[in-house]
Amino acid sequence: MQLRPPRPGAERGGHVRRLTMRGLRCLITGAAVALTVGLAVVLADRPTHPGLAAVASTSPADGARPTRAPTEVELSFTEPVDPGRSHIAVTGLS
């Protein structure tokens, strides 16, 4: 009597599943769709202008007309500001 190693898949009832060309095409198509959807989600979630800070709030408020000149003006931005590439001017009615 000669002993043979068990066939692959024998522990599942002896059925071995093989990848056919049709199955391979479905697998590749599914992977491509998943990658495309993942890339679309990542691109849609990023800011439209990375590195471009916008004014979020000001004190005194934008358009306010204080009776005397403020001693301090505060600006809040949506992102960090690069002082080397930024310019702010405070002007008043003359």
Query: Approximately what portion of the residues adopt beta-strand conformation?
Result: 5-15%
Strand order of the largest sheet: 1-2
Helix content: 25-40%
The end-to-end distance, rounded to whole angstroms, is 110 Å
Query: Mean pLDDT across all residues, rounded?
Result: 78
Rg of Cα set: 32 Å
Low-pLDDT parts are none
From the spread of the alpha carbons, the general shape counts as rod-shaped
- Strands, count: 2
User: In terms of structural class, how would the helical and strand content be classed?
Assistant: alpha+beta
Give the helix tally.
1
H-E string: HEE
* Largest beta-sheet characterization: 2 strands, antiparallel
Explain how this protein is built.
The chain is α+β, with helices and mostly antiparallel strands and 94 residues long. It has a domain at 20-63 and 73-81. Helices cover 27% and strands 10% of the residues. It contains 1 helix and 2 strands. The protein has one helix at residues 21-45; strands at 55-59, 74-77. The chain has a two-stranded antiparallel ribbon with strand order 1-2. The mean pLDDT is 78.
